[in-house]
Amino acid sequence: MAKVLVVAEHNGETLNPSTAKCVACAAQIDGAEVDIVVLAGAASGPAAEAAQISGVNRVLTVERDENDVAIAAVLAPQIVALASDYSHVFGPSTTFGKDLMPRVAALVGVNQVSDIMSVEGSHRFKRPIYAGNAIVTVEAADDSAVVATVRTASYQAPEGGNSAAIESVDVTVELPTHTRFVELQTGQSDRPDLQAAAKVVSGGRALGSEENFDLIYKLADKLGAAIGSSRAAVDAGYVPPETQVGQTGQIIAPDLYIAIGISGAIQHITGIKDAGTIVAINKDEEAPIFEVSDIGLVGDLFNIVPELTDTLG
Question: In the chain, is it the N or the C terminus that has fewer CB atoms within a 10 Å radius of its CB?
């Protein structure tokens, strides 16, 4: 029987929705028993949320001061110490998981399976390649552990209502001394989190300046949406990197995605392919974004967006 350990992503207080989506992926493995591990300075909050996820058998908590900040070099050895009891170790294909899981795979001594979007068997999976333009089936050795990241945009979080057992575990490992936490700088925002938002409004280089991006903020506020952007907008300095959507940014799957002044480069399309409804506003009717959009509007964004914002009241 497959035993899957899902590494929880959290901010110390609440669980990131990516964790539940990893559970949904693990549940596709026939007969899988799924546990979640929460590594934190204080794990009670995230652990309580994890215990409510449908399909979870147990929630393991590893509490130590060193886990107060998620540093991959510190977390990985602890996860590997627990991994010997499991056939699979899953983490989300988010910034957190992409930083952590390769270290876990290296310490376990296996090749990582990246961006699982479909489970075909206990050791057989489908994942996107070539910026999502092709899907490949990969297979891990039957006699080895599977360490993988899950493409969270491909899964819906299971319902709550569970009451899994929460168990505190002690992990005795030698932690690295070459890596230390110095400082965390993060922006504060009242807007929804980009990774978890149901609605996202994104702007591209066509906005022309950081000041003009105010059009995106106003529309997003009217819709209660998160802010996204293209890589070109980030590179131009219009918005911070954490707003970037795409292969080198965040891969998201909102119910509604509005792309404003975004041409639709392949790397950006990769990040939004699983969105429910894609709306594109661009003055270039040949822009690639229209090939994947459900609703397309050709015109000057500096006229259309203010009018749309005003219409929403």
Answer: C
